[in-house]
Automatic annotation (TrEMBL):
Family named by the database record: Belongs to the leucine-binding protein family.
Protein name as annotated: Branched-chain amino acid ABC transporter, periplasmic component
Biological process annotations from GO: amino acid transport
Organism of origin: Azospirillum lipoferum (strain 4B)
Pfam families documented for this protein: Peripla_BP_6
Keyword Cell membrane: no
Superkingdom classification of source: Bacteria
Alphabetical keyword list: Amino-acid transport, Signal, Transport
Signal peptide: 1-30
Domain Leucine-binding protein positions: 33-380
Amino acid sequence: MRKRLFATIAFTALTAMTAVSGLLSGAAQAADPIKVGAIVSATGPASFLGDPEKKVLELYADRINKAGGVDGRPVQLTVYDDGGAADKAASFTKRLIESDGVDVIVGGTTTAATMAAVPLVERAGVPFISLAGAVVIVEPVKKWVFKTPHTDRMAAEKVMEDMKKRGLTKLALLSEDSGFGKSGRDQTIAVAKERGIELVADETYGAKDTDVTAQLTKIKNNAAAQAVLVFGLGQGPAVVTKNYRQLGISLPLYQSHGVASKEFIRLAGGAAEGVRLPAAGLVVAAQLPDSDPQKKVVTEFTKVYEDSFNTEVSTFAGHAYDGLMIALDAVKRAGGTDKAKLRDAIEQTKGYVGTGGTVTMSAKDHMGLTLDAFHMVEVKQGDWSLVK
């Protein structure tokens, strides 16, 4: 009798412990973090792109966690700074996948860093949302790779569209010998043929060059040129712009979306006056019409960013915001962080209104933006002005 009683008590206790253990396990599972990895160029030559990206990722991961996370799960953000070096980007990507066990990666500030990470994420089967501009990132489509910024091809199209409006048909190109610059050059050449624009000069400069007057002098002496397009990022385009004014070149000067930041205006100083470039609506948020679906999003993002960091908002900060939001929205729609389901959910993103425009992806489009998401802006009195 006594043995039977002890056996009953033991069984009851074991059952209770198992039930509690199950509840605790379920609670722990529900609270498992969403592991987001990021590689950005927070320092180095591309820091004015990567630093705001890093700040935004950290800011919004914290804000989301304070609001209760995503479906009760906190965001665990791991950020590595590649300093603008592609080999470091590859090394950190490998670490994020193998050591940190991330569910999704947001980052790759530059095209070179992104392309160094691509084979690693493709092989491992980890969703990757790039923050870089070159079209090669998503064309041809890669199963696990997506991006938030407009492409270099779109930038070339937008510039030539503006040229045609101004009656200009002959273009001089000056591109940087970086991944972004080389891809931009290739896309400009291709788009020029399609748009009936004659390329009358094709010069290059080094990303670390402190003087580009030799190349610009050739362009100045080219009687056929009617406009100049510079394809680069970081400090190089500011150097080009200063040299351009020093040489007294009077042709319209275009830059790419690789410099859509107030930092470019600061670096170039008064020489930036009159420069035109394609950019996201974020840089001219207050100038967008109230009917624009982006107006509310970019206005709110601008306020949060500028209140948080006491500095002007950056297009590149917006790229990071969009990447993080698209990833976390996909987690909700996928019902968790199963990588295959998460990849599919990112690909099925439809009607997301972000800082870069309205995003609708598909199996054939891993960016999801149209040319309408780009705005032509001009530097006027040291600020961006919407070209109408």
